[in-house]
Amino acid sequence: MGASKVSRRDVLKGAGALVVTFTIVEKAHPALAQQAAPQQVVGNWLKIEANGKVTAFIGKVDLGTGIRTAFAQIVADELYVPFRSVNVIMGDTQSVPNQGITGGSNSLSSGAPPLRAACAEARQTLMQRASKKLNVPLDGLQVRDGVIFATADRTKRATYGELLDGDFAKVAVSGRAPLKPPAKYTVVGRSVPRIEVPTILTGGEGDYVSNVRLPGMLHARILRGPKFGSRLVSMDDSKVKALPGVVAVLPFKLPGDKRLESITSLFAGDNIVARDWVAVIAEREETAVKALSILEANTKWEGQTEMPTSETVYDWMVTQKATPNVSRNDALTATNLRIAAKRVRAEYRIPFHAHGPIMPVMAVADVKDGQATIYSPTQGPFMVRREAAKALGFTEDKVRVIRMEGSGLYGRLLVTDADIEAAILSQTVGRPVRLQWMRQEEFNLAPFRPARVFRLDAGIDDQGMVIGYSSENWLPWRPLRATAGNQNVNPLYAFSAARVVTNNIESPLRTGFARSIEHVPAAFAMEAFMDQVAYAAGDDPVAFRMRHLTNPRARAVLSAAAARAKWQPHTKPSGRGVGVAFAQYESGAAATFVAHIAEVEVDKATGAVQVKKFTMAHDCGRIVNPDGLRNQLEGGTIMAAGWALHEEVKFTDGRVTSEDWSSYNIMRYQEIPEIDIRLINRPQMQEFGAGEPVCITPAPAIANAIYDAIGVQPTQMPFTPDRIKKLIKT
Amino acid sequence: MAEKYALKVNGKVHEVTAEPDAQLLYILRNDLQLNGPKFGCGLAQCGACTCIVDGAATRTCVYPVSAAVGKEITTLEGLGNVEKPHPVQKAFIEQQAAQCGYCMNGMIMTSTAFLMQNRTPTAEQIKEALNNNLCRCACHVRVVAAVQQAAKEMS
Fold this sequence. Notes:
Oligomer: heterodimer
Strand content of chain A: 15-25%
Number of helices of chain B: 6
Strand order of the largest sheet of chain B: 2-1-5-3-4
Strand content of chain B: 15-25%
Number of strands of chain B: 5
Largest interface: A-B, 62 and 62 residues
Low-confidence stretches of chain B: none
């Protein structure tokens, strides 16, 4: 790890610089209109130095989605400087504004407006200085590549560096500096290659958290109780302590340990793994790994939480005591359903999903002299700082969290895990500790996407329009979230009357956020059901949706996908089929639209489903980096196809049994379909965000294509060969 | 008992002291401070730790250090660097074949070893060669395109 990458302590000091800061927290501020929480914008956003270096400070983190590069593009454009002069620092609690967590595809929609305002402010300040220095009025000046010059006489010029020389100034964003008109963007909208990719692909210094190596650093592994609710009864650690280089064997009681119990989650879910554990700490990593297996054979555990299995959980869910959340309740729903010319009913089931990051969670903590530095791949560096301070008994100013890249997380680290555990272990042994979770631990104890059951009911009139729609669904969180489950449960379609109820219940497993968390199950149920209703109405699935859609962007996306795929369902079961799904991603102010059309082939003998091709259309407003966006769309489509075809957290007898890559299957090379993408760019709109929306529609598109292929629709994810074979037989 | 081992990594001999069953991955990452090979599963299932040992793509998370003595070990760093990338690395960079990039060490090392055996592979053969390397962000399409591009440039 390069020391230069981390020592950002002096980043805001030094002569010859201009720093732009946000001091205003009101939503009325013109740059903050899009902000859900304007107070999260306060802080320094930009620094321009006399040597021409430009640094942007962003509270969001790059999870491999390419937003570091996108933010650098925005700065280069708005500030009129070369792209390569822009450096972006993200997620270091010591220097960036506290923009909350990174998730929900909102990094650009919430980060771009204040960043642009900061750049505009800087540019205006420099233009004013240039006007004075060159004795040319403001409207007689132009700027290009960090050089301001007189339009009438180009020899009258001053570089940003010359205008900053010897002077350190801080300006606050007024919101009155004029923004560059989008039509004049030259960097935004271009496929600039991602900044960190060459380093990643050559094993260079990089910024991976796994590459942090501190002097005197110890290696830790954790042995967890074998089942949910397991208590440690006894432990013989003599064999482990006899291993050369073992420094400590530390048991923790949960509940029972005050430091761990002090931690609360940002949103919900058990923020800590609620079972006893034992940490082994060693000088060398392989010793810690070996100690783990020896310790496992020499501990006694008892007790387990009563819970259903991954097979019985759906019937279990619908009988639990629930807190209902009614998100739509039109008075006419029951009547319209009763008087409908035709009625369609179906139940859909979605299992728990694991994030399955290729790097199981890890962190390095260095706690000494009443201060803590934590190197973490977290999605919420300020959340880790707050929780670590509580666990360590420090005030927050004594904790610095340096967020560094890990593997893709997809919501996995919207809870704190290894970061807090590593901090407690480092505090206990008085040396830096690197804690790495093992693969089985990751699959056992991650906060999963909640399983769901949807019961849907629709009534169609004699014109083939939906006049009544009822959706009742069950949503487990742990602990219970009384207001959860509204994302994408309300129909996007113009149904005359609807009633939508989410029954919130307590989850048997640890739950947390995952890529397009509640949208995925909701849109699977909705869009798979939509096809059944369309066929009951004697209509084509695309035409039926279009007749119930009014939003012009929604209609444009769906018709673009259909046109590109030359949409033509086969209608007679032939083993090959096509299926469509559409969604608008619901999350705050986001307005991203997506449609997928899947082409599948079903092997009637084995029940195996092969997705041959996806055609898709996507509209996320203004596109900053088309190739970066395509990368997200390709990846999201494939990941979601894996949810549809393979992924399911299996559990029985109080423990997860899908605990490695042979029992939790994800998409592999030989089954990757062709992906054809139509991007709809709306340069005059804001950036609405991508990454999550694309994941919502592949599963229902596949389910609908399977129906087209075999004449039966799979209603339970994943669509495994066994399940499809059973459907073919019935 | 810990012993001394001489390992030839990226053309240079390094002496390390470790238990004979210590996993090569930890030696490369911790003793030799190499960043390329990554820990992913410790079970030889995902491929993130792959290095080339005597010409063969090898999962170092289960490979004992004592077995590596006398062999030519190449890591991602040994192929090339940012200034002078290996043709496979160059193709991956040009195709932007990465999101988080954590698994890409395994993709590059496995396809480099594969291209030494097959200079003119079809897309199907590339997919077969990489089928047991897992990518969660799902850059498969770009990786296959990159390996095809590298094959062309290397032949």
